[in-house]
Amino acid sequence: MKNIRNFSIIAHIDHGKSTLADRMIQMCNMVSDREFQDQILDSMDIERERGITIKSQTICLPYKAKDGKDYVLNLVDTPGHVDFSYEVSRALSSCEGALLLVDAAQGVEAQTLANLYLAMENDLEVIPVINKIDLPSADPEGVAIQIEEDLGLDSDHVQLCSAKIGTGVENILEAIVEHLPPPEGDPNKPLKALIFDATYDPFRGTIISVRIIDGTVKAGDTMRFMSNSREYKVDEVGLFKFKREPCKKLSAGEVGYILAGIKTVDDTRPGDTITTAANPAEKALPGFKKVQQVVFSSLYPISTDDYEELSDALEKLKLNDAALTFEKDSSVALGFGFRCGFLGLLHLEVIQERLEREFDISLILTVPSVQYIFELTDGTVLQVDNPAHFPDPSQIAKIEEPFIKASILMPEKYMGSVMSLCMERRAENTSFNYPTPGRIELQCELPLADVIYDFYDKLKSVTQGYGSFDYEIFDYRKSDLVKLDILVNGENVDALSQLVHRNNSRARGLHACEMLKEEIPRQMFKIAIQAAIGGSIIARTNISALRKDVTAKCYGGDISRKRKLLEKQKAGKKRMKTVGNVDIPQTAFLAVLKSEQ
After folding, report:
1. Which of 506, 510, 511, 513 is nearest to 489 (CA)?
2. Phi, psi at residue 150, to the nearest 5°?
3. How far is CA 440 from the centre of its chain?
4. Is residue 172 within 8 Å of 161, Cβ to Cβ?
5. Residue 595 pLDDT > 50, yes or no?
6. Parallel, antiparallel, or unpaired for β 70-77 and 4-11?
7. 533: closest CA among 582, 491, 488, 498?
8. Cys-Cys link to 161, which of 168, 214, 530, 542 (CB 3.0-4.6 A)?
9. What residue ranges define each of the domains in the chain, with the CATH number in brackets?
């Protein structure tokens, strides 16, 4: 155990975590140059396309240090985006130390602080690393001062590197061996193993990722889940190399996987403790704190036959993504589906793409909303995240919406445009800090509903990519909320309903009408698209009718014959308008959603 180091790489988005992991893997000769590819640990296509890490990945690196000893380094590469911070907290629970990466050009940013606090909560030893020192705009000395002043870390321990070209990576590996503590634990005690991740394999069942705290586990043991007392016989244990590599046993301090032919997905829960049936542990490990979903949207299969497949797919994804929650839901327009909770819009997009790619299910999404608290006149308190459950307005005494505490770090010159963006989004209690010359930290309280749509995109635009943003749920405050219904040809389309602040309702309604007008194909009759609050129409647009030329067969100049045909067509259109149905294409639901982002 003295020669094992379990560590994680944490940082803000794009500060070079996956690139540093690549260099470490190459330096430990884990992969030949022919097989190597950039971001080698990012296994999903969607991660490669977007250039971000979504899932934290574990790999076991053999390293021969300068003192001649052989070490085993268990590296966990983590995501940087705020939507996947729960992945980071789970990854850190399996480590004793962390490398905190900071960009030499951009310095300390919002997620740098957030991830440092996560590491401190887990009592990890932190080694600060300044990356990208080869950039022309790099300022390692200035960033080292920032690390000492803003983060309170000792600048004497700062490691300098360029993960792209490999400078300084060997010094980082030596620092890991010297400064990070080895794991603690007793291999002779009863088995205690923490599940920090799991994936589903159609041939082998559930593959459980574990950190062994105490004891030993080997093939042939009967293991027990402490949350539900289910027992399984262990088929195989092993370490994470590029492929799963079986070994004889896993003992205290090690990170690896367990295969036990678990076909029922429900039995495995990240945060649960595994022990042995023969010599069980007395009490379970504390596990993970419950995650707080902030964005809710309903997912419906385009074909109703896919409902069971969607249910199975969500169960398997939940194994791999513990931040996802879902419950059954139904809609008049779209049939049966699921109401899902997400940590943000990027999380929602990633889940949608994974369902479509990995499970081949075509989906329709409803407009995302947040969770509001309604107090009714009879004293009942309701939590509502679905517009379909909006209570009768005459019975509502008070509505409260969630507010977040936002921290925005940016260069000084963008302060005016960021302030006006925040004021548009109903910001309150704004305050400023000046962490270093030329940089401002803006702190304010914002309604979550106004942040989840396109706030982050707009912030990146107005700060030319230099602004960084982090937030935490703060409290609930009184709000003037209305339910915005969308009517197509006089019929309410419940999947397009949304809960909005009264001040934003007309703009949101006009926007939805315009987007639907672009997407819904023209019919033989005029279609009215309306946005309504209760019985009041607040926005409208029309899709004009297709006109068939009924007078084409009239060869002469008999005007009365032509008029008779036109009158007949007019009457037909009138009747068609009352009985005709308008099919709303899938792209229309997505257009309303995408435009808001």
Report:
1. 513
2. -80, -40
3. 27
4. yes
5. no
6. parallel
7. 498
8. 168
9. 4-179 (3.40.50.300), 192-276 (2.40.30.10), 295-365 (3.30.70.870), 372-478 (3.30.70.240), 483-596 (3.30.70.2570)
Distance CA 96, CA 119 (A): 9
C-alpha–C-alpha distance, residues 482 and 571, integer Å = 38
In the prediction, which pLDDT does 597 show? 40
CA torsion, ordered 423, 478, 448, 394, to nearest 10 deg: -120
Cα–Cα distance, 456 to 454 (Å, whole number): 6
Beta bridge partners of 382: 374
State the DSSP H helix or E strand holding residue 50, giving kind and residue range, or none if neither: helix 45-50
Top-ranked range on mean pLDDT: pick from 25-29, 56-60, 411-415: 411-415
Residue in this structure with the two tokens 């020192």, named with its chain if needed: 133
Q: Using one digit for the tens of pLDDT, what is the confidence trace for 295-323?
A: 888 888 887 788 888 888 888 888 777 77
The structure tokens listed for 229 are: 């007392």
Q: Render pLDDT for 428-486 as a digit per residue (tens, 0 to 9).
A: 888 888 877 777 888 889 888 888 777 777 887 888 767 777 777 788 888 888 888 88
> What is the maximum alpha-carbon separation in the chain?
106
Tokens of 566: 């036109």
Tokens (6 digits) for 519: 């997407």
